[in-house]
Design goal:
SH3 type barrels; five-stranded antiparallel β-sheet; elongated
Length: about 80
């Protein structure tokens, strides 16, 4: 299963955005969103190195809350 990861744009260089999420930095290709108005500080969803959707800060935070909950469940010992 694959997830889109919400990330904040820190720098844009043509069709490449330098993004950050949870302390991790990645370069993300913006070509698929070339008709969106994107700026430093905006949030995108990154999937396999491609920006696939622009989202609000609230949507990004809500996604991270869900991912954090899933990660916590994964760390819990199995129930007998």
């Amino acid at each position: 299963m694959c997830f889109g990861i919400p990330m904040q744009i820190k720098k844009i260089d043509q069709f490449i955005a330098h993004c950050e999420a949870k302390g991790f930095e990645r370069e993300v290709n913006l070509f698929m969103l070339q008709y969106e108005e994107l700026a430093v500080g905006d949030y995108i969803v990154s999937h396999l190195g491609q920006a696939i959707q622009k989202v609000t800060a609230e949507q990004a935070e809500a996604a991270w809350e869900i991912y954090d909950e899933m990660n916590q469940i994964d760390k819990e010992p199995p129930r007998a």
